[in-house]
Amino acid sequence: MPPPQTISEALRQARAAYRHYREVAAQEDSGTTTTEAAARSGGEASTSSPSSPASSLPAGQGGGPRRLIIEMPLPAQRDGFLGRGGTPPDLVTLTDEADYPGGELQRFRVVRKLVEGFLEGYEHEFLGFCEDGADGVGLWRVGADTCLIANVTNATVPSLLKLLDGGYGARASRPGSTVIAFNPTWTGDAGSVGQPWQRELRRRAREVMDRSGWETLYVARILRTSRGANGLLHRAWPGRWAVYPAASPDARYFGDCVLATPSRPTPEKLVEKLAEAKPAMQKKAKELGLEEPGWF
Q1: Is residue 232 pLDDT above 80, yes or no?
Q2: Annotated domain spans of the chain
């Protein structure tokens, strides 16, 4: 799947990955049901082979729900990157806190539009904010077996824990169900969750914030290293993780893939590969007129 240049294209790719996931999940659930029925009757039933797509489905933690992550690019809220030059509003580009000076609530308003676009065509319902509306963490019901929670940060991980524990209904805690974290921004630092004396909360947070316990269904994220190398991290389930160098901190020009792995690449590997490609991208930026003061 090629890297997306616009948010609309990224949304289409994310929907395609989710549709494929649901198809494989339905096949797996059907195969399990058939096997159980055959066991009860003493007969035989065909099941998916180990090499079938169903075998690549993420398993639930401790018999709980499957956990999925979707990381969509957000539209820039300023006229141009660092105030220099304009970019189309739908262009995949690098954003930062200055794009959302209104905090998590402003960010949630944008994320909510993406969630609604992602869920278009599926039976779903926005259930409201998990706790305080100012936290900007929203919850959706999707069909009969899926919950989607959006915009979880380190500070609001307790809302995610409450969801997984059944605090917002039993749906998210049942085996065979699915929980989707849409555009989470937690860093994995459990020490920033709760208060120092809340040791059990932080222990639980450490487990839930561990990305190895989640399957990334889709990600399209513009990267920029401390040395000014630009790129894109891209993955659409069940495909590979791919890294593309970029001529500028947006999607106007991507070079050929410089890294493709079956699992999420480490930050060190990302920096290494983008640094190697930086000279070629600088040259391309000059050729295309994408070079701007202070970008490199």
Answers
A1: yes
A2: 60-216, 219-288
